Amino acid sequence: MASDGRGSKKRTNKKVTVLIVLLIILAVLAAAAAFLLTRSKPEPETPLDFNREVGDENEETAAADTPTVDEDAANSALDQLDGESSSQPTRDEGWSHYLLLGVDGETDSYTAKRSDAMIVLSVNQDEGRVVLSSVPRDTLVYIDGKNGFDKLTHAYAYGGADLTVQTFEQNFDIDIENYFTVNFAAMEEIVDLVGGVTITLTDAEAKHMGEYYAAWGLSGGTQVLNGKEALAYCRIRKIDSDYKRNDRQFAVLMAIYDEVKDLSVGQYTELISTVYNHMYTDMTLAGAISLVGDLLSVTENGTIENVKLVDSEHSSAASLDGRSVVLVDNLEQTAIRWREALGIDDYEPSARLKQISEALEELK
Q1: d(CA 21, CA 17)
Q2: What pLDDT, on the 0 to 100 scale, is given for residue 237?
Q3: Which carries the bigger pLDDT value, residue 283 or residue 95?
Q4: pLDDT of residue 335
Q5: Tens of pLDDT along 102-146?
Q6: 252 part of a folded domain
Q7: Which end of the chain has fewer CB atoms at under 10 Å, N or C?
Q8: Rounded distance between C-alpha atoms, residue 101 and residue 343, angstroms
Q9: Phi, psi (5° rounding) for residue 239?
Q10: Residue 238 burial by Cβ neighbours in a 10 Å radius (0-12, 13-18, 19+)
């Protein structure tokens, strides 16, 4: 890592992910269009239910030689923790953090759906910085109330965005201001609306997209993908890893942005309607407008920094009840490294993070 903590970051010059772009478009319209003032869409309350079945045919089976996680030992360690020592997540001075969630499921019900894309949006107005940090969906984390470890993606199925936010705060010590949930169905519609996206496929990716997601007729090379094909590309995971899946999602988001910025006024209106029907947030209208103002002023002359909160260098594959999970090497050090990337040199991990990190070590 470079001495300023930013050397390993991939910078995306003058580009924003489609989630941010759509947030900007939504909030700008909200300031001028009365219908948004009367159509508040907070996410429906999701009752906690840790007995829900959250696995499906896409649940990945761990390889035979993958190290097995000792879940009983970890849960036993957690049983010994003093609940009163729980603490609030650390507040990073000068930074505001937001959670962007991509949910795979129909918009009529967010209950029992998994969050397959999770990105922390961090904004520092004084320093003129915007940072996007992704986390693999299969990262093994502690989910409060479940009294045990499970995949991060399952927190949404158990308790919606609220529990997902709480899980992020406890496991990564990040104080989340607000969340924005976007249904993946929106991506397919948006890609078709902008006329497709240009993506370079490998032969293996093209073959997998046909065999698993019925996106037939594709081959390796650079080409324009329609909505169905782009969504299939985002879902690829079995041919390599969860980390690569995150990379593919970013590639599609960047490609969408390339097309979005050239839309006509009429197309923007249709785009806004499409996104609004697939998005939920706990942010107020005033808060959204304020955030947009910050984003616009920061990105006007700066760059968007793209980092991975959990990367392949500091985590590994493991098996939990035969299912493949991503096991972080050291949770506390993960939070410290992330602060280093943000340039925060006075960070002290919270008591709760230290507890969870120590219990997680019992898994190994």
Answers
A1: 6
A2: 74
A3: 95
A4: 96
A5: 886 544 444 547 788 888 989 998 888 888 888 988 999 988 877
A6: no
A7: N
A8: 25
A9: -80, -15
A10: middle
Note every long-range contact of 252-256, with CB atoms under 8 Å and residues 24 or more positions apart, other chains counting. 252/187, 252/191, 252/197, 252/199, 253/17, 253/18, 253/19, 254/12, 254/15, 254/17, 255/197, 255/198, 255/199, 255/230, 256/18, 256/21, 256/187, 256/190, 256/191, 256/194, 256/197
Confidence class for position 239, pLDDT limits 50, 70, 90: confident
| Range(s) of the domain holding residue 205 | 195-241
Residue 283 lies in a domain: yes
Summarize pLDDT for 198-210 with one digit per residue, the tens: 999 999 999 999 9
Number of domains composing the chain: 2
Asked whether residue 51 is assigned to any structural domain, the reply reads: no
Regarding predicted confidence, which is higher, 293 or 10? 293
CA dihedral 179, 184, 189, 195 (to 10 degrees): 90
Considering the domain architecture, whether residues 181 and 207 belong to the same structural domain is answered as no
Query: What does the alpha-carbon distance between residue 106 and residue 199 come to, in Å, rounded to a whole number?
Result: 26
Which of helix, strand or coil describes residue 186?
helix
227/346 same-domain check: no
Torsion of CA 15, 239, 228, 207, to 10 degrees: 120
Q: Rounded CA gap, 113 and 103, in Å?
A: 7
pLDDT of the residue at 100: 86
Please indicate, yes or no, whether residues 321 and 346 belong to a single structural domain of this protein: yes
Amino acid symbol at 351: A
CA distance 290 to 345: 27
For residues 113 and 230, state if they share a domain: no
Residue among 184, 171, 132, 129 nearest 303 (CA):
129
Contact 134, 153 (CB under 8 A): no
DSSP 150-169: EETTHHHHHHHHHHHHHHHH
Tokens of 120: 């922390």
Query: In whole angstroms, what separates CA 280 from the centre of its chain?
Result: 15
Domain CATH for 88: 3.30.420.590
Query: Given this model, what pLDDT does residue 225 score?
Result: 96
Q: Based on the domain organization, do 226 and 120 belong to the same domain?
A: no
Supply the DSSP symbol for 80.
T
In-domain check, residue 216: yes
- Which is it for the CA torsion 235, 197, 129, 33, positive or negative? negative
The Cα diameter of the chain in Å comes to 59
